[in-house]
Amino acid sequence: RGVSPLLAASLIHAAVDEVLQTDLTEFKQQGVETEGEGDEERFTLLDGESLQRCFFNKLRDVCCEWQQQLPPLRPLKRFLLVSIHAIRNTRRKMEDRHVLLPEFNQLFGLSDDIDRAYFAVFDGHGGVDAANYSATHLHVNVGLHEEIVKNPAEALKCSFQKTDEMFLFKAKREKLRSGTTGVSALIVGNKLHIAWLGDSQVMLVQQGKAVTLMEPHKPEREDERARIETLGGCVTYMDCWRVNGTLAVSRAIGDICQKPYISGDADGDSFELTGSEDYLLLACDGFFDAIKPYEVVDLVLDHLMQTKGVGLKAAERLVAAAKENGSSDNITVLVVFLRDPQDILADCLRDPKSLGAGDDARSSPFNFLSCEAAATQ
């Protein structure tokens, strides 16, 4: 408690290294079937409680050692302000999960000269197990992937499939039926890599304009419908388009009873960052079903004007707007500022006509103080 995230990530990496140098066979569970389906892959199951005690003992040892002599810690080259807010809303349970790791390099001991930061949002359904598992394991699979340095886009995309396979093994053993959509972003130097399953989404705002980066996996998509029907499934309309009359998404981690129609094969894309990007936004469908991308631009600018350029609670403003606009679902919003919010606001006040959400903004249900009006106050 009270430790900086940079130091915490470095401590965890050092403690995990110490654990991995021990003989892990003593933690192996006895009398448990560990073979994957078709004997194609073998999983080793470890006793979680014993391993946890071992980790905390190693962590204590590392802390004591570092108290005597703190090793040089590699600082972050670039500070990214992150605003996060999540609510259960009117749902009985909160099934969303999120992860933010600006200290990705420190956590996984990547010592090259390139900064990396990882962000993700997961929207569970049918229980929280799949979302919990994905939030715990996906970034680990990314960080340990053999291509993380040379081909981070491939590492990110493949890690979704790996996480799906791992959770399906757990779901089969423990009779779990839940699933989760997911969207993740990995910033590597001046490149943005994204990957997703389902209808959780990531968008970019660049020079005051909303930029669409992806197309969510919905069963009404022509290519998704064709894939599902080729496999023998069906897409039917029951208040919305659903796979086999159940799920309103066509790809997800988990959902063991709906495989292979609900695919665990993620889509991904990569983009060059030029320095003109304002912020990145990741959110679940509870947000995007209620708020259009151009409204995001208006909402964030309005928030920055009201707070005089303080962006820390921008996500809270966005979540409140989604709820006001009729969303009853769990809502999670994660905003990663790629520029100083003060600079974003200054650009708006300096040249308000060059910024904004475009002509579609005229239909926005939100009435905001315009940049031009703010400039005159």
UniProtKB/TrEMBL annotation:
Cofactor entry: Mn(2+); Mg(2+)
Origin superkingdom: Eukaryota
Gene Ontology annotations of biological process type: apoptotic process; intracellular signal transduction
GO MF annotation, one: metal ion binding
GO CC annotations on file: cytosol; nucleus
The EC number(s) this enzyme carries: 3.1.3.16
Catalytic activity: O-phospho-L-seryl-[protein] + H2O = L-seryl-[protein] + phosphate; O-phospho-L-threonyl-[protein] + H2O = L-threonyl-[protein] + phosphate
Database matches in InterPro entries: PP2C, PP2C_BS, PPM-type-like_dom_sf, PPM-type_phosphatase-like_dom
Assigned keywords, A-Z: Apoptosis, Hydrolase, Magnesium, Manganese, Metal-binding, Phosphoprotein, Protein phosphatase
Domain PPM-type phosphatase: 81-338
Family stated for the protein in its record: Belongs to the PP2C family.
Assembly with partners or alone: Associates with FEM1B.
Cross-referenced PANTHER family: PROTEIN PHOSPHATASE 1F (PTHR13832:SF233), PROTEIN PHOSPHATASE 2C (PTHR13832)
Function: Dephosphorylates and concomitantly deactivates CaM-kinase II activated upon autophosphorylation, and CaM-kinases IV and I activated upon phosphorylation by CaM-kinase kinase. Promotes apoptosis.
Entry protein name: Protein phosphatase 1F
